Structures are given as C-alpha cells and as structure tokens.
Amino acid sequence: MKKIISFALMMTLITGCVRFQNQNATPTASSTPLPVSPTSTLSTSRLTVCLGAEPNSLYPFGELNAPAKSVLAAIYNGPINTVDYEYQPVILTGLPSLENGDAEITRATVQPQSIVVDADGNLVNLETGVRVKPAGCRSDDCIITYDGTDAIEMDQMIVTFRMRPDLTWSDGTPIVADDSIYAFEIQADTDTNLYLIERTQIYEAADTHVLQWFGLPGFVDPTYFTNFFHPAPKHLWSKFSAEELSSIDIASRTPTGWGPYMVKEWIPNDHITLTKNPYYFRLRDGFPKTDEIIFRFISEPDVALSELIAGRCDVLDPSINLENHVGLLQEMQSAEQAQAFVTTGMSVEWLGLGINPASYDNGYNLQQDRPNYFGDVYTRQAIAYCLNRQAIVDNVLFGFTPVPASYVPPSHPTYDSNLKAIPYDPEVGNSLLEQAGWQDHDDNPSTPRRAVNVRNVAYNALLELNYYTTSTAQRRQVAAILEESLAECGIGLNVQYLSQNELYSPNGLLFGRQFDLAEYALGVESVEPACHWFTSFEIPNAENDFIGTNITGFNNQAYDTACRNAQFALRDEQAYLNEYRQTQIIFAEELPAIPLFYRLRIAAARPEVCGYVLDATANPMSNIEAMGIGETCQK
C-alpha cells in the first residue's frame, strides 16, 4: 500500500537517500519514416515537463539558458550527443576516426605569411620567430622557430562527415550537406563558435550528404570528430540576414528541426507545446512514444514539487533547483509518489585558496601585502586534512558524490584511479601546520594559531582567514561544517556571505583575486577534462581585464605543460591519458584549490513516467523520444 505524505510534511522533510537512475541505452534507426498526421490517433498522449525558467530563445546558435537547451533537445536531437562522457552520433552514420579512414593527418606545405596555428594553439601569420610544430611533431620536444624564408610542412587534419540519407526537416524538406554549410556561414557572419571557425580552412560538401572539414595547418584537434556544424534550414532562413535570425520567430521561437517534436505554440510566461514530428527518422521504430510535450515554466522548487504531486508536472527538469529537496524526494520516492534521479557531472564546488592575490603581481611586500598564508604547500595540504568534506557529502549531499581527489569525475575515462582523496584527519593537519611554522601558542586548538617561522608571513600573525561565498542554503551548510572542522586545527574563519553580483563581479573579490578563501563552482559544457581551469594562462589580471578561471593565481610550469600536451593529444593516443593524469598528479600534490564535491544534477518524475534518463553528461531531455506516461509506456 502506498504511503501518503501530506503537503506540510512534504515541504519540511530533508533526510534520506534518493535512488540513482542511470540508463544510457537508446535504440537507433536506419529506415526512412513515412509522414503521418500528428492528429491521426483518436486520443493524444501528453507529457508535461516543468522547467526552472522560460527559455531565453530557441535559436540554436544563440547564448542559451538551460531550459532552452532542454527544449531544443526535443526539436533537434543531436547532431552528436554526449552520454556517459562519450560521444555518440545521432544524425551521422558514424563518428569519423583515424582508424576508419574518415579522418586523416596529412602533410601540408605552408608558405611564409600563411595563417597557421602555432605551437601554443594561437592563430598567427607564419613569419620569422614564430614557434611551430613541423609535420610529424606532436610534442614540445620538436618545436622549431621559423626562420622566415622557406616553405615548411605542417600537419593538417581532414575529416569527413557522413550524414544519414533519411533525414528530413519537420516540414518534409530533405536535409542535405548544404544545410550544414549554411549553418557554418551563419556562425561565421555572426561571430559565433569563432574558436573552431577561425581554425577551419575549408568546410565543403563532398556529396549530397557528405561533408569535409579541413583544419588550418598546425591545428590537430583532439575532438575533430565533433567538427560537424549543426544544420540549419537554408530553404526557410536564407531569405533573412544572419544578424536577423536570432530575433525573428521562425528561428528563435518556432525553429524547424529534424528531431522527434516540433513547436506548436509558445505562450509567453506560461508554456511551450511541442507536437510529434511526422517526418522524424525514427518514426517507424515507434518513436517518439508521446504525441505531445508541454514545457511549463516554474521557477520555485516548492511550487514545482507541489505540481508534481498534483499531476500537473510529469517531469521536473534539472533546471529547477532541487538541491535543497533531496531528502524530501527520497521520502516521496519511498511513498511511491515520485521517481528521483541524481547524478554528478563536470561541475565542481571549490574552496579556492588565495595563493597569489592580485596585490602580489608587482612583487610581494611583507609589510604592506596580505600575509602569504598559502605560499607553503604544507599549509595548503594541512587545510585539506582539516576540512571535513565527508560530513558535507553525507549530510548535505546525502552520499551521492565521493569526496573528490581530482578535478576530473571518477567515472571519466581520464580519471587517475591511483589518486586518493585527502581524508579528514585533524591530527595530520595539525602536524603539517607545525611543520609550516604555524604554532599553537596557547595549547588551545579552538583559537587561531600564530606564525612563528612561516616563510613570507610576519611573526605572530594569526591564522585567521576571510571566507567568502554566496548566501544559498547549501553554501551556508557547507560553511558551517568547514568552520567547525578547521577550528579543530587552530584555523579561524571569518565567514562572509555575499550576493552573486558582489562575489562574481568583474575585478571583484573572486576575479580580482582579493580573498583568502572562497567557495565557488566551476563547470564546463564539454566532456573534455578542464585542466585549463588552473593554468597560468587563466589567471585573471589587469592585462586580461581580470577574465579567467584560475582565481587562486596558481602558477606551475609543469602543470601548464602537461595540460597543454593533453589538450593537443588525440583521444585514442596514449598521450591523451598520460598527460591528463599527469595534471591530476600535480594538482593533488600542489593543491591550487581544494575540490569540495562534485555538484549534483537532480530531476524528478511521477511514478507513472517511463523512459526518463538522467546522465552525467547528456542533455536532460536527450532521451525525450523514449519518454511516456501510463499506457504510452506499453507502446
């Protein structure tokens, strides 16, 4: 018999553990679908997905918020999806590779003054003094400095993409290679996706459904197999300029796609309705299962959960912030009132250590600058031992994430399983602090230690640190746990809660590198490891207008080299694994920042919903064609 949870109780329960859902299997099709009318059935099956906000646009080449990306997954499906940290073709017959011959590295003859990619990955003219990798060179050991006279040979990538021949726009028009070229031209004209476009020498059609991408000489791209440009309906959009597309309804509110659904209506501030695409290429396989999808916009998590219980939301998208309701979802699941889905991904919650504040950029002054608390690696390691991160995982995140040992998630192919997370051990932490010169002057661990023989720290300075973060409920819980555990090692905290604007403002406390400790999050859209987060090139400073992710100011040549080598290696090369793992080893030893936990992605659904999948790296609606409710699940 089902247990019933009252609404009052539902709003207060905060304990327990939610079942982890992770299913990645999605059938594929090879046959051409026959167009059918969306209204050909006597009754229309519907599924309501509630989003945390209204999409800011449905223009596929714009700056999109998370709800927009969820809706677009239903309209487009692909062209290449990422599932469980791996790439999967959707509208391509397969992914090109060096092994299958659809990718190759050739020797290109390059004349002086030609545009190339240099040894550091920058676009440059080939002229005297430029450092480049000649053909066959894949490491820093064989870099040459160009003499400015003769032509040289450099590596050039050529990649062939083969589209499925049965693809059709939702208005019945066949999708061809020229639609992808048109998309490339749109983005080139509107300064979108410039990193790849600027490194593209040629993008052309080799056949009706075959395209070829030529990279600039020197650009050996590890993710070359993704350099296929998301097609755009040239037959509908080409009458408008590239600049107009982002603001006109045909591209931004009712875009024509090839996915399982198409836009029927968009009622501002309320909902978007999608109907089944009669030309979807997987229609003969029984997809999509549901005739109509309604996306509602609900910003308040409490309201969204109430609507789920009432049956007015069938699925709660991860764009609804359910971090503070994990315990409640566990109770609802136990009572068979909901299904809960929890996973982690590439987003990490960090405790940043102010190793090199911006005030040190003109040289450290012992008398004028903030004490150099973190210059000694023993101090940084001691702080890690004195942080009760396991208590955070157990009490705030309900055990859904391990204590991190790296910036790379444990399930990622490049994760170094030999690394072990630093455990909470105040005894070791206290010992390391003693070695660094921080003394417990009064034999009372609850009072801050004092500097006795700490390099670049004035004698008798207190180990009392300013800790900055935002005022969300979760971060308040984390700060309280860390404050208590650090006190066990004689480390005092002055916790200050700031607004998002205050903490993340340009040249503010974080990006202006004006903090002792700061709790913040970093995430990436890609599934490639984000070693660049802590390279010296990412240090925010006056020269780059304080833009960059390395807010701690960590500067390590060996780390920079390993990260650069990893980013230039191909996925199927041993160097790809070796170099990414080397960055993790250096990171674990040097601790430029301390990873607190991998952030959770959380979704929920009514018990009657089937087919929903929440994957660590996939779009949360990437499997929407397989989703159904009630009798629809029997199809």
Question: How would you explain this protein's 3D organization?
Answer:
With 635 residues, the protein is an alpha+beta fold. It contains 16 helices and 24 strands. The longest helix has 17 residues, at 574-590. The radius of gyration is 27 Å and the shape is globular.
Topology:
Blueprint: H1 7-10, E1 46-51, H2 66-75, E2 80-83, E3 86-89, E4 103-110, E5 115-117, E6 123-125, E7 131-132, E8 144-145, E9 152-162, H3 177-189, H4 194-198, E10 200-207, E11 210-215, H5 234-237, H6 242-245, H7 249-252, E12 261-267, E13 271-276, E14 292-297, H8 301-310, E15 315-316, H9 326-334, E16 339-353, H10 377-385, H11 389-395, H12 426-436, E17 438-439, E18 450-451, E19 464-470, H13 473-487, E20 492-498, H14 500-504, E21 517-522, H15 557-568, H16 574-590, E22 593-605, E23 609-610, E24 628-629
Second CATH tier, the architecture of the largest domain: Roll
Structural class: alpha+beta
Task: Give the integer mean of the pLDDT values.
Answer: 91
Number of strands: 24
According to CATH, the homologous superfamily of the largest domain is Dipeptide-binding Protein, Domain 3
Morphology: globular
Which stretches of 5+ consecutive residues score pLDDT under 50?
A: 1-41
Strand content: 15-25%
Number of helices: 16
User: Any idea what the radius of gyration is?
Assistant: 27 Å
Main sheet properties = 10 strands, mixed
Assembly classification: single chain
CATH topology of the largest domain: Dipeptide-binding Protein, domain 3
Q: Work out the helicity level.
A: 10-25%
Whole-Å distance between the termini? 27 Å
Please, how many domains? 3
